[in-house]
Amino acid sequence: MTAAEHWASELAAWAIPEHIRAQAPESPWAFTPAVYRPPKEPTPDTLSRVRAREALPEGGSVLDVGCGGGAAGLALVPPAGRVTGFDQSRELLDVFAEGAAALGVAYETVHGNWPEDAGRVGPADVVVSNHVVYNIPGLAGFALALGTHARSRVVVELSGEHPRAGVNDLWRHFWEVDRPTGPNADDAIAVLREIGIEPQVERSPRPAWRTMDRAARVASLRRYLCLPAERDPEIDALLDDRPSPPVEAVTLWWPGSASS
Ligand SMILES: C[S@@+](CC[C@H](N)C(=O)[O-])C[C@H]1O[C@@H](n2cnc3c(N)ncnc32)[C@H](O)[C@@H]1O
Q1: In angstroms, rounded to a whole number, what is the distance separating the alpha carbons of residues 143 and 129?
Q2: Ligand 1: distance of its center to the CA of 256 in Å?
Q3: In the chain, domain spans
Q4: E strands within 100-159?
Q5: What atom in ligand 1 is closest to the CA of residue 67?
Q6: DSSP per residue over 69-108, as a string?
Q7: Confidence bin at 123 (pLDDT 50/70/90)
Q8: Is 3-255 a CATH 3.40.1260.20 domain?
Q9: For 239-254, what is the mean pLDDT?
Q10: Per-residue pLDDT band at 211 (split at 50, 70, 90)
Q11: Which of 132, 157, 247 to mutate to test the pocket of ligand 1 (most atoms within 8 A of CB)?
Q12: What is the pTM of this model?
């Protein structure tokens, strides 16, 4: 099995069992906008931001793929003078646009799926994509299109382990099912190497849910767990007992190949 096939098959194992999915009041995989709203106050620089910023000319452009509310791209203003948010969710693009307008930066939003709709957007000095790749079975094509859109550098951030693995015990509690744990960041790196991308790899601690509003987190988990809102107090109580696990952020960066 190739690294790309391994990645795709590990992700496929995350499909929610049909008898549970059928009871879900809302889509379990939808992203909750409140969760992805960037903090109002500036937060300390992450390693990924440092790597993106050092490749950006003053007033340069950023393309944020899977931008959500813009946590990755908008944090690069300044020196970034123009930020394009690309996402498959119109709701999240609205959050991105709100944040960009508040910063007073030139911006554009592009609605589409990466890489299928990558042709709708031009190149940028730096292309960033944070916490998206675990949603992408076709990681090779995804990564190649990031590279062809970057004049200077691609910076991808992902968690060391699958971001949903930390709540697998809740699936056992509510539904008595065992969930998968893989793939992990090393599996993503193997896919990149297989297609000739040799990324720089840097690992750093990532503050987990500490900065996130508790109610938003509970609502997001309830949707993912296919539960109705009446179960929120139970989810909230279970979260109380849990130590916040240290979450590792993995920053991958490589040169872009766009010429203009
Ligand atoms: C976990 S959120 C991360 C958002 C943001 N980058 C951040 O770090 O806060 C993943 C985002 O990727 C988007 N997304 C997932 N797959 C995508 C695809 N193939 N093309 C475009 N956007 C995608 C989702 O809509 C969502 O906004």
Answers
A1: 10
A2: 20
A3: 3-255
A4: 106-111, 124-130, 150-159
A5: 6
A6: TTTTTGGGTTT-SEEEEEES-HHHHHHHHHHHHHHT-EEE
A7: very high
A8: no
A9: 82
A10: low
A11: 132
A12: 0.95
Which mutation among 29, 37, 135 tests ligand 1's pocket best, with the greatest number of atoms within 8 A of CB? 135
- 18-69 pLDDT, tens digit each: 999 999 999 998 877 777 777 777 788 899 999 999 999 999 999 999 999 9
The set of protein residues with a Cβ atom below 6 angstroms from ligand 1 is 31, 36, 66-68, 71-72, 87-89, 92, 113-114, 130-132, 135-136
Q: Would you say 121 and 86 are in contact if contact means Cβ atoms under 8 Å apart?
A: yes
Q: Are the beta carbons of 16 and 170 closer than 8 angstroms?
A: no
Q: For ligand 1, what atom is nearest to the CA of residue 163?
A: 1
> How far is residue 233 from each of residues 34, 154, 214, 247, 251, measured CA to CA in Å?
19, 41, 12, 25, 35
From 87, 128, 130, 156, give the residue whose CB has the most ligand 1 atoms within 8 Å, as the site to mutate: 87
pLDDT digits (tens, 9 = 90+) for 129-138: 999 999 999 9
> How far is Cα 21 from Cα 169, in angstroms, rounded to an integer?
18
